[in-house]
Amino acid sequence: MIKIQVNGRNHELSQDLASTPLLWVLRDKLKLKGTKFGCGKGLCGACTVHFNGNPTRACQLPLSAASGGQVRTIEGLSENGDHPLQKAWIEEDVPQCGYCQPGQLMSAAALLASGAPVDDASIRAAMSGNICRCGTYGRIVRAIKRAADEGGRA
Amino acid sequence: MKSRHVQDIRPARRRFLKQSALLTTGLAVGFHWMPGAVAGDEGNRLAPFEPNAWVRVLPDGTVKLVVHKHDSGTGTRTALAACVAEELEVDPMAVEVITPENPFFEAYIHPVWHVFSTGGSTSVSLEYDRLRQAGATARELLVAAAAKRWGLTPDRCRAVDGRVVHAGSGRSAGYGELVDDAAKLPAPDSVVLKAPSQFRYIGKLRHKRDAAAKVRGRLRYSIDVDLPDMLVAVIQRAPVIGARVDGLDAAAALAVPGVRQVIRVPARPDVFGGNQEGVAVLAEDYWSAQQGREALQVRWSASPFSEFDSESLPGRFRAVLDEPGAPLVRTLQTGDADSAWPVAAQLLEADYAMPYKAQNPLEPICITAELVDGRLYFRGGVQVPSFAREAAKAVCGLDEDSVVIEELISGGSFGAREAKYWLMEVAYLAQQAGAPVKLMNSREDEVRALFGHAATLHRLEGALDGDGRLSALRLRALSPASGEQWEPGYDERPDHMDYSTTEAISAWDFAYRAPHLDLGWVRHETGVPTGWYRSVSFIPNVFAVESFMDELAHAGGRDPLAFRLAHMEERPRHVRVLMKAAALAGWHRPLPEGTALGLATNQGYGSFVAVVARLSRRDGVIKVERLSCVIDCGLAVAPGGVEEQVYGGLMWGLGHALFDRLDIRRGEVVQSNFHDYRVARMSDMPDIEIRILEGDRDNPSGVGELTSPPVAPALANAIHRLTGRRLRSTPLDLTLPG
Ligand code: FES
Ligand code: FES
Predict the structure, then answer these.
(1) Does A49 contact ligand 1 (Cβ within 6 A)?
(2) ipTM of this predicted complex?
(3) What are the domain boundaries of chain A?
(4) Sorted alphabetically, which Gene3D superfamilies does this protein's record hold (chain A) (predicted)?
């Protein structure tokens, strides 16, 4: 059995899934569909989750490598959808199709949680691994700054 | 994404508003658009007329807008809801927007295209009037019902925030209490619409719907569909265009845990836009299916494309244009260009090339189909329901009534969901597998799916007179036909015009005037499947024309802005966006050393745009510093939505200019994922300045496909000013020494 904790809940999964990327374990076994698939190669960021607190591309992490670790997904970013970033995202009306946004939010949340200064340079560095085909980058920058200004370091 | 001149269909639009008592409860106001109905014919037509509910007010006071408009994230539904809500006096965010139970109901036929589709940046502009009238009709009926109940004349009552009130007596009634009475009243013959100065929502909306669900990862996309006993399919499609399966050994694939079936999917070259041949692996989940696919042993036949090389296309295209008898569809002709060449002070000629491009929506194509009791159910982002019907018919022999669609939002489309190969494939698999099948593209599949943007070559010739004015211009735009050829009747058009291939170069929308103009499209089919793509032919047409206008200005010693303005006639809105963009970007101000500006413009769907690019060069590296963009889209129903569409378009334009390029070598697509098919990331974005002008307040027009085309020529024009080098093919190479 492979043990992982996802959004505070413990799961035991079959050894047969050892080489299956965490992304597909989350989506197809645990039925947590908020984490998205965009490229399967660590290039787009749609599958970003927090693994032991670090922003991680779930499509690149075999379940065996996640064994014993703690995973946070978009479903676990906040209890009621009221993480400062989620509020700022709504306030700035960021999502277009919305497909990239769970990954964008998880990358942004890791940036805020890191305690690093939030400015244009750190935002670009933290967010440029997340592709948005609709073109929400400008609003993402505004929303991250808004959340940071409002003390959203949670 | 289709384009057609809006004005030439406007006279055909007919509106009938009527309220329906057919529904079991509530008030419904609908209208019916009858293709081909002529004046005097209305009495006959109205007899069997069944109104379609566009706006429904239910007894609990909820308001539903029933409309078939696919949502791929462009905020269309928010804007449509605003049009109804404005006249009905309710909060647009409280209006539920739903798709009809049967999306093929005649009223949802797109008024321009005559096919069931959402595309072409027309959604809001075409529905604007009808939705407002529907909202106003419902309001009048509710007011009349309240007035009758209170023994008053309707003019003494008012609708306010979902209620009818009588100020004199303080009486008021919620819409829900009034619907049953209102449904029994005759519909008013005409309704008075609000003046724009009275608008509370239109032009003021800053937020879209669904944002709360999107930021929690709770919105259901095609990829999230999960049904009992569902199989997930991935397809190994012919690597070389046109190749067929010559031999298949599925044993190793079938031995992979989770894999259930391997099905050969036959090519459908008999259907326009039909799928290539492939081998599908069906498994319990995506990962297993992919493992199975890697274990497949497929031998592919040779194909006529085995030697096809896209690198040779510009040369081949030039040779076609060199032929005197190249097939030409003329789009604009004035004067006699041939007479101008001998007397010209200067002659210029240039060719501009653009490569194949892939749409790459972030959610790869994904669609679920299930065949139950002779009905085919599709679940997912079906942007063109008539293609689903066509697939059901061509593949399963089902008639149109046997198709049911549960429509879900798409993770972007940009034209990818206006293809039909995947609908045909999934229909076939659902039929063969005897289980619900979810077909998923990997990113590699998406990049290699074909049906993207066509490679093109444009040849321009210009003659300048002694004053540096344009006396003659000839354009030959070489490209294949657009996805319009998939529509019924395409080949029967007497002029063989393809409106989606000749955008911005037609008689009605070419921006410039000169004594002799001779513009035309040279249809040339390479056989590589291409399809719809955000902004379709605006992209190459505008790249060529806007680059060449700069070349002409330069040759004649004119300022590129002044040169453009000097060749525009009766285009006040167009002139205004150019002037404003120039002012915004500091066109006439001195620039620091190593910095340059470039300008380009576009118009379409009744909107106008100008873009100024600012570049800098430091240590031999050219950097895009800023894009300044001014648009006039008439009335912006939801300004926040307009701004984000403009931004998205600029980002796409940056992609065309710097990244987008799909190569085909020996018949195989070379690129495979975002490492070798680059798309714009946050780190690629320059400063973006956007100004939305207050235009014609009565007439909103499209913006979704307006702003990408001028970006590449604006950059090419700036590069020329900065380095003296003229780049005539994309992606533009910023690394060449200049
Ligand atoms: S799906 Fe994991 S980075 Fe793209
Ligand atoms: S909002 Fe559509 S991909 Fe980002």
Answers:
(1) no
(2) 0.97
(3) 2-76, 84-149
(4) 3.10.20.30, [2Fe-2S]-binding domain
